[in-house]
Design brief:
- The complex is a heterotrimer of chains A (93), B (363) and C (110).
- Chain A has four helices and two strands; from the N terminus they run E-E-H-H-H-H.
- Chain A is mostly helical.
- Chain A has one domain: Orthogonal Bundle (Arc Repressor Mutant, subunit A).
- In chain A, strand 1 and strand 2 form a beta hairpin.
- Chain B is of the alpha/beta class.
- In chain B, 33% of the residues lie in helices and 26% in strands.
- In chain B, strand 17 and strand 18 form a beta hairpin.
- Chain C has one domain: Roll (Ubiquitin-like (UB roll)).
- Chain C is built from one helix and seven strands; from the N terminus they run E-E-H-E-E-E-E-E.
- In chain C, strand 1 and strand 2 form a beta hairpin.
- A five-stranded mixed sheet of chain C has the order 2-1-7-5-6, covered by helices on one side.
- Chain C is globular and about 45 Å long.
- The chains are: A mainly alpha (93), B alpha/beta (363), C mainly beta (110).
- The structure holds flavin-adenine dinucleotide and FE2/S2 (inorganic) cluster (FES) (2 copies).
- One FE2/S2 (inorganic) cluster (FES) binds next to loops of chain C.
- The site of one FE2/S2 (inorganic) cluster has 12 residues of chain A, from loops.
């Protein structure tokens, strides 16, 4: 079925799951992300983010300018925590 | 903590041009890119560019890239490759991740030149190995010299779809067709006639219905659509392909600008959400500048000019240029930018850019 | 399927030939090329399987952004193979879902 279409490749969340969240009244990418996990994957919504915005625009009848992308948080690439924890502070020469 | 006067994030045409201009004015500049090689999208562009003479029409992107790199080295830009700017914190401090460790970099001004990300299209089978971005295919053939597949379907007839199709043919693949959902071809006529002459059909008002196969793509189903993107029953055809490339547009890659708290505007002609900026490419956050595709999807030539503008402006704010000299130089660049945003395609962008600048001034 | 000759780029630069151990099988690669490119050149397109439905995934963005190409490299899971250069003797394994640390059972990845 087309409704089983995967929207979030990382977390394997389908279009019908995202639509269900919208039917329940969620209107932001961040809320949908918390509820369905779409956008919570390793890529942090880089691939699915815009698709989720498009579904919101269509299903909730919102203007594109009303749909903000999900919040960007560091790290913006999947950097292992081990690397982030290994903080090197070089003094300026 | 390490310090630099100006950090330029992204070493594509915009970032390289920005770094060169700021360093030439006397600023201490650190240019950072996550890739092993600098150049951004430029090194994948093996075709001759269009545009005016000053903008090196007829030159291949690769050659422009080599020139910029040499110039950057000559004027003393510090280049840090294989380094991701993973975060942007208050007070213009950057978090860098490099190899097995991370570092902080304290800056006085930041130029974001992070480029764009490719849009995708979801359809049954779009997660199968063999479905990939057109940019991925271009990177594979032109940089890594490996074919993504033998028989390819290209989705999207904008410039990226047309150019990558031609490059796939040059690399020895077969492109079975280019399909385009709109009734018209989005890319430039020169590129369209080139692929047509090479025997690739361009099917407008067509979409991809599904990609099918066991462990990877073995075929794709396409169909005609009406003007509301509804598939017309009975027009489905199956194409024997092993690869489907998606060239369905680019969006500004503005994650760091969001993190910095910059104000944005939604501008469809420039690819979606774009950070507001003024005539100097400064965002709504003082000291943070943007240039290139992150400031709205355009072309390499405009990316370089915006980079120069941002570089001059940032160096000016840090008093490396007198206001008078800076203004003269910046207005030269603005004139060249205006000349580039001309004609059928450029006009719309010129208007959109003006709106961005006006919105920034009102903000 | 390598592009050895090219009308504009000319002949492919010759690099040092190395061996990668991929799921226990040796494959030839060129030193420094991304692991995913070497795998593709050797005819392998499936890089991992997903956690929920066990679906195959391969290279998608080739830019290090989509994370579809992650594999376990020298025991470290979730390595983006499209931006990780190949080195002689690397041990590369497919993973299911987010994978696990190998050889380091005490360390926990988020
Ligand atoms: C297939 C194709 C064909 C094209 N053909 C033409 C053409 O014929 N003529 C033309 O004028 N233009 C063409 N373009 C457009 C042109 O390539 C782009 O407009 C131009 O490259 C944009 O430059 P940029 O510097 O803004 O971004 P990019 O070239 O994309 O560079 C951005 C760089 O920033 C890096 N980066 C991003 N985020 C981070 C981070 N957090 N930390 C570290 N580094 C980061 C990226 O990895 C990248 O290297 C084409 C584009 C494509 C995709
Ligand atoms: S595709 Fe949704 S988080 Fe990666
Ligand atoms: S293919 Fe997208 S991260 Fe490697």
């Amino acid at each position: 079925m087309e409704d089983d279409l995967l929207i979030c490749r990382c977390e394997e969340v389908t279009r019908s799951e995202v639509e269900e969240a919208i039917r329940m009244g969620l209107r932001t990418v961040n809320e949908i992300k918390r509820f369905t996990r779409a956008g919570f994957g390793l890529c942090q919504g880089k691939t699915c983010g815009r698709l989720i915005c498009d579904i919101l625009i269509r299903e909730a009848d919102m203007a594109p300018s009303e749909v903000l992308p999900g919040t960007s948080r560091p790290p913006v690439r999947p950097i292992p925590t081990r690397v982030l924890a290994n903080r090197v502070s070089k003094e300026d020469e | 903590m390490q310090k630099t006067e100006i950090a330029v994030i992204g070493a594509g045409p915009a970032g390289l041009a920005a770094a060169i201009e700021a360093a030439r004015a006397g600023a201490q500049v650190t240019l950072i890119d996550e890739n092993e090689r600098p150049g951004g999208q430029l090194f994948k562009q093996i075709h001759k560019f269009f545009g005016s003479k000053e903008h090196r029409a007829g030159t291949r992107g690769v050659e422009i890239g080599v020139d910029l790199l040499e110039e950057a080295k000559r004027v003393g830009v510090i280049t840090r490759l294989n380094t991701v700017v993973y975060g942007l914190y208050h007070d213009k401090c950057l978090g860098l991740a490099c190899g097995d460790h991370s570092e902080d970099l304290q800056t006085q001004a930041i130029i974001l030149a992070t480029g764009a990300s490719e849009n995708v299209l979801a359809f049954p089978g779009w997660t199968l190995p063999g479905v990939m971005g057109a940019g991925a295919a271009q990177t594979l053939i032109n940089i890594h010299r490996v074919l993504p597949g033998r028989r390819i379907l290209m989705v999207g007839a904008g410039n990226v779809g047309l150019i990558v199709t031609y490059q796939l043919l040059q690399a020895g693949a077969e492109v079975v067709a280019i399909i385009e959902g709109l009734p018209v071809i989005g890319g430039y006529g020169v590129h369209a006639s080139k692929v047509r002459r090479a025997g690739v059909p361009i099917l407008t008002s067509h979409t991809i219905v599904s990609a099918e196969g066991g462990e990877s793509v073995e075929r794709a189903v396409i169909a005609q659509v009406d003007n509301r993107w509804q598939v017309l029953c009975g027009t489905e055809q199956t194409l024997e392909v092993d690869t489907v490339c998606l060239a369905v547009g680019l969006s500004p890659l503005a994650e760091l600008a969001w993190m910095a708290g910059c104000r944005f505007s939604h501008v469809p002609t420039l690819g979606g959400w774009v950070p507001l900026h003024d005539q100097d490419m400064q965002t709504s956050v003082p000291g943070i500048y943007i240039a290139g595709d992150v400031a709205g999807i355009e072309e390499a030539s405009t990316a370089m000019e915006e980079g120069r503008l941002a570089g001059l402006a940032a160096a000016g704010t840090l008093c490396h240029l007198s206001p008078e000299v800076g203004e003269i130089k910046k207005s030269e660049v603005r004139d060249r930018l205006a000349a580039l945003r001309w004609g059928g395609f450029g006009e719309g962008r010129a208007v959109a850019k003006r709106q961005i600048i006006e919105a920034r001034c009102e903000a | 399927m390598r592009v050895d000759v090219h009308p504009i780029l000319g002949n492919a630069p010759t690099g040092k030939s190395i061996i990668l151990l991929v799921d226990g099988r040796p494959i030839k690669a060129i030193e420094g090329e991304p692991i995913a490119a070497a795998l593709l050149a050797s005819g392998r397109r499936v890089l991992r399987h997903t956690a929920r439905h066990g679906e195959p995934r391969g290279l998608f963005c080739a830019l290090g952004r989509c994370t579809d190409c992650v594999m376990t490299v020298d025991g470290q899971p979730n390595v983006r193979t499209c931006v990780t250069p190949a080195r002689d003797g690397m041990v590369i394994e497919s993973q299911v879902g987010l994978g696990r640390w190998k050889h380091l059972p005490l360390e926990k990845e988020e």
